Amino acid sequence: MRARSAVGACVSGWVLWAAWSSVAEPVELRLHTFNSPSSIAVTEFLRPWATEVALRSGGRVTIRVYPAMQLGGRPGDLYGQARDGVVDIAWTLPGYSPGRFPLTEVFELPFVCSDAVATSAALTAFHRQWMQGEYGDTHPLVFHVTAPGHLHTVKRQVRTLEDLKGLEVRAASQTAAAIVEALGAVPVGMPIPQAYEALSRGVVDGAYIPWTIMRPFRLHEVTRHHTEVGLSCTPFVLAMNRTRYDGLPADVREVLDATTGMALARRLGRLWQDDERPGRDIAVERGHSILPLDSAERSRWRQATASVIAGWVAKVDAMGHDGRALLAEAERLVALHGDGR
Fold this sequence. Notes:
By secondary structure, this protein is of the alpha/beta class. It has helices at about 1-25, 40-55, 80-85, 115-130, 160-165, 175-180, 195-200, 210-215, 240-245, 250-260, 260-275, 275-285, 295-305, 305-320, 325-340; strands at about 25-35, 60-65, 90, 140-145, 150-155, 170, 185-190, 205-210, 225-230, 235-240, 290.
């Protein structure tokens, strides 16, 4: 009887120790991105988020942030790296994977987005309703967007559609390239880390990006003319390997969920929107020419890019969706969240 009690005590003790050991086991996650270590994506988002997760988990979870493609590959590989478990988490543009995320592209269409706060919230809500299948091979933690993009050129100011004819312009994605082409320019696809050299060497004549992207990649040094038009936003996703997420203890998943989602999407939208001013201020300080597009010319650009919207609608219709209904829903959500809801 005593022997049986002793064995029982030992077994019970081992079970308790194993349970405690499992709960207390540290978790380390590797987060990979293309952006510069000095960018707001790294300094104001990814590293502070990693710190928040560490604090909320009592120091149990460590997220190591690797910027500037330090773990290898190209920016276009990042989503696949998270999907395949090469890294645990990746922050990237869906647009760097051409054709892979057709429904996400609705928020890249010309003149659909507003400010980054409303559009980040709208994209998050749209994902919940319509885009689960598009990201079924990863676990998305948060979606957000930049502020609407502008045109930044090296040698001449773009004032009208006619000024764009023949200009070679860097574009971030297939949708951005379609917009550039519809405006009469020649799109050149490349990840943003390549833009500085391309602009400085005359490989491209300009870039279509928001002001916030100008700072970390020092693009003020290689452009002198800026046309403010607010063409479209660029979506981002923080995607986690699905198997890695599902295999985490429930309390760790709760920490990740509590620090991401809609609340974080709104904060990131505000961060990116507020960073437009500092990016613009550098151009002002350097004496660059800045031209806000007037309403009449803006209407011409809207008409010129209507074909991009029609092309997207036709593409998603062919996939079995109602493209016009999805576009209307995206616009409704942007307007809804623009009212602060």
